[in-house]
Specification:
The protein is an alpha+beta fold. Helix content is 15%, strand content 47%.
């Protein structure tokens, strides 16, 4: 994704450009197939909230509790602050008239200069969601994420990991009508995912030999069909005693099993790579998420909730630090067409913050969060800033 052009072209091009070493890249980042800025602002704890269009991917059981429809069209962009500066340094070397050996030396110095740094980009130029009471459909034609990490493996290397997903999802949800201990809802999201994937360390010699980073035929490609299963439970609490205090908070508990089949990307339609492949893309891991939601008492135009999740249980890189998500959301609404939200939280041990402004059908989400890109015993923060522009009907 390192060629001339806009940020969008930069990201897209990383999928179709250069040579690389044969070992797999080292990345301990837990990649989430879908992320919503609203959830990220509150620590990415959303399992027991799931009350908007993103319930399709966070917890489909939330669709059973919708009372109206929602059509959301959006574009989203996210990245670490230094990624464009790193790209400019790379581009200055690439566009120079230096010899191959001089370029190799310059690339070595560039990688050594940024030892320990991790840069990431993520872009979905179009996302479409349509949800109604009890069901929903989502189509994301392209969700591209790229991670660059400078390491000393066998010499200085640029560890590069790329995900390029196309997703079509269909959800259905309903209440468990025979359940008489509060309200119990269940939901399922079936999804088709076509994935392009690249994970290799790139040496300075490879950068010097070509003006390309990842060629189209270097991508591992495959598709899979899988499903997420979710439940929401709002207990019915007594009107008296200590329980009456808890009743004011209207607690709700949720759980999701993601990628039940964990079938992997063993089949390919050869949309991105028509060449013979040795291997398959990184699979969608079967993981378990559990969470809770506690509402604040509404006061004038304000309201909100606190949330606590443990996510990605069962992932190879899971530990409690990476799995713990905590957040708070504060709502304000002047009218039905003018409202907003403020959010704070902790995601994998690092602070998050977000704001949303809704004016009619035009919505803007801004968020800052961090991924833990360190090892199991050594957390390393990679700060990300993201925005999403929405048309919401």
């Amino acid at each position: 994704m390192l060629i001339r052009g806009s940020l969008f072209l930069t990201i897209v091009t990383v999928l179709f450009t250069g040579p690389w070493a044969q070992a797999e890249s080292i990345s301990t980042t837990i990649h989430h197939h879908y992320q919503a800025p609203r959830a990220l602002g509150m620590g990415d704890a959303f399992v027991a909230v799931a009350n908007d269009y993103s319930a399709i991917f966070y917890n489909p059981a939330g669709l059973a509790r919708r009372e109206d429809g929602q059509l959301n069209l959006s574009m989203s962009y996210a990245g670490t602050p230094g990624v464009m500066d790193f790209y400019k340094e790379y581009q200055d070397i690439e566009s120079s008239n230096r010899s191959e050996s001089d370029k190799q030396t310059a690339y070595l110095e560039l990688i050594e200069k940024h030892y320990g740094d991790v840069y990431s980009l993520r872009m979905a130029p179009l996302e479409g969601f349509w949800v109604r009471p009890n069901w929903g459909v989502a189509f994301i034609p392209m969700d591209v994420s790229v991670e660059f990490a400078m390491h000393k493996q066998v010499g200085p290397t640029l560890n590069t990991t790329v995900y390029a997903d196309t997703t079509l999802a269909l959800s259905y949800a309903d209440d468990v009508h025979w359940f008489d201990h509060g309200r119990m809802s269940w939901g399922i999201t079936g999804k088709f995912v076509n994935r392009g994937f690249f994970s290799r360390p790139i040496k300075a010699t490879d950068l010097a030999q070509s003006n390309e980073i990842v060629k189209k035929e270097d991508l591992l490609e495959g598709y899979t069909v899988d499903a997420d299963l979710g439940v929401l439970w709002t207990p019915e609490l007594p009107d008296e005693g200590l329980w009456s205090v808890l009743r004011l908070a209207r607690p709700t508990f949720g759980a999701v099993v993601r990628n039940v089949g964990e079938l992997g990307f063993g089949q390919t339609m050869k949309l991105l790579n028509k060449e013979k492949q040795n291997g398959a893309p990184d699979k969608l891991y079967r993981v378990f998420d559990v969470g809770s939601r506690w509402e604040y008492p509404s006061m004038w135009i304000f309201g909100g909730r606190g949330v606590l999740d443990v996510r990605d249980i069962g992932h190879p890189d899971f530990n409690m630090r990476k799995g713990l998500h905590l957040g708070f959301e504060f709502d304000w609404a002047v009218t039905t067409w003018w409202k907003g939200h403020y959010r704070v939280g902790l995601n994998q041990g690092f602070w998050t913050a977000g704001v949303s402004a809704e004016l009619g059908i035009f919505n803007l989400d801004l968020v800052s969060y961090a991924d833990d890109v360190g090892t199991r015993n050594t957390p390393v923060e990679s700060r990300v800033y993201a925005t999403r522009l929405n048309l919401d009907f």
